[in-house]
Design a protein that fits this description.
Number of strands: 15
Shape: globular
Enzyme class: oxidoreductase
Order of helices and strands: EHEHEHHEHEHEEHEEEEHEHEHHEEH
GO molecular function: 4 iron, 4 sulfur cluster binding; coproporphyrinogen dehydrogenase activity
Low-confidence stretches: none
Keywords: Oxidoreductase
Protein name: Oxygen-independent coproporphyrinogen-3 oxidase
EC number: 1.3.98.3
Radius of gyration: 21 Å
């Protein structure tokens, strides 16, 4: 890294970093900060497994600068946890949250899933109410992706107990209303934030962004991914590390770049990326912003708007200002945004978009 580079965000995740021993955590924090220290108002977030955390580890993280913790919940119902092979009781999670708060960590992220086996509106209501007792600053409400042809462990999950697409939508709406009733701002398609949280502020000021980790208020144009299969983003394009851990570690030990593949931006890539991001973040595309920042005429841009609207039976709104996704069409936002992607995704295996 060039000297003088500062980190606006540091995130430990993509697995269970709290499996590391305290001494190894100390060494890792020191190595990172020696390479590139935190900038002003930097955020250091860590994904914490309540089943794999203790006071010693949390002390090291807090002393090392962690100011945002992230806890995955998925669902608190014992039957659902047994079906998905993830046992994590409310009491264990509550204890982890209390330890985090006791160490002065200012912000807490949580996430739950809808669309799990055996899940119904009663069970997801109970889980959301328990989750709200933690007073999280941010909540991600993700749809469970059932892809047993890609994730072998999911072959043990009973597919006949999964909710239908209509039931999935009802589960999402149930949880969404509970978060809204509790005063959370709705952020994009699947996040919620307390009014004082950075995501809610970014949304109000038009600075909300979306990257591989979801929604963010970080405006840096460089994202560096470390670890097997992680993806980096640069102004010039994307780069992905080797997926196999053995290949990744071998490259690092040999002093080689671990990059296995990449994509260089060309043509309309940046334009289309911004169109997709605008829809995912704001449910609208501002025509004046796009024609100001990209080499595209207003005529060509509105041709794209009309073509997309036609694909969705004209449920979108096109005005002089641009393209807008009305509230009743927002469950389809991900699919609508995908229509602006110039690359063929038809051969990839995907889970339900709703």
């Amino acid at each position: 890294m060039p000297r003088g580079v500062k980190l606006s965000r540091l995130h430990w995740g993509g697995g269970t970093p709290t499996l590391l021993e305290p001494d190894l955590m100390k060494r890792l924090i020191a190595a990172v900060r020696e390479t590139a220290d935190f900038g002003e108002s930097a955020e250091f977030s860590v994904e914490i497994d309540p089943n794999e955390i203790d006071a010693a580890r949390l002390d090291v993280l807090a002393e090392g600068g962690m100011n945002r913790a992230s806890i995955g919940v998925q669902d608190f119902d014992p039957l659902i946890q047994e079906a998905i092979g993830r046992e994590q009781s409310y009491d264990v999670t509550r204890a982890a949250v209390d330890m985090i708060r006791e160490r002065g960590v200012a912000s807490l992220n949580t996430d739950i899933l809808f669309g799990l086996p055996h899940q119904n509106t009663i069970r997801i209501t109970e889980t959301v109410q328990k989750l709200l007792s933690f007073a999280p600053d941010r909540v991600a409400l993700y749809g469970y992706a059932h892809v047993p042809w890609m994730a072998k462990r999911q072959q043990m999950i009973p597919s006949d107990k999964l909710p239908t697409p209509e039931e999935r939508l009802e589960l999402f709406e149930t949880a969404r209303k509970l978060f809204r009733w509790d005063g959370y701002s709705e952020i994009g398609i699947d996040h919620f934030a307390a009014p004082s949280d950075g995501l809610a502020i970014a949304q109000k000021t038009g600075k909300l962004r979306r990257n591989f980790q979801g929604y963010t208020d970080d405006t840096s144009d460089v994202l560096i991914g470390l670890g097997a299969s992680s993806i980096s983003k640069f102004p010039q394009g994307f780069a992905q590390n080797a997926s196999a851990t053995s290949e990744y570690t071998s490259a690092v030990r040999d002093g080689r770049f671990s990059t296995a593949r990449g994509h260089t931006f060309k043509g309309e890539d940046r334009l289309r990326g911004r169109l997709i991001e605008a829809l995912m973040c704001d449910f609208r595309i501002n025509a004046a912003e796009i024609t100001r920042d990209f080499d595209i005429s207003r005529v060509r841009l509105f041709e794209m708007f009309r073509a997309t609207n036609a694909q969705f039976e004209n449920i979108l709104e096109i005005t002089e200002d641009g393209l807008y996704v009305p509230a009743d069409a927002r469950p389809l936002t991900r699919i609508i945004a995908r229509s602006f992607d110039a690359y063929d995704l038809s051969k990839a295996g995907h889970s339900s978009a709703i």
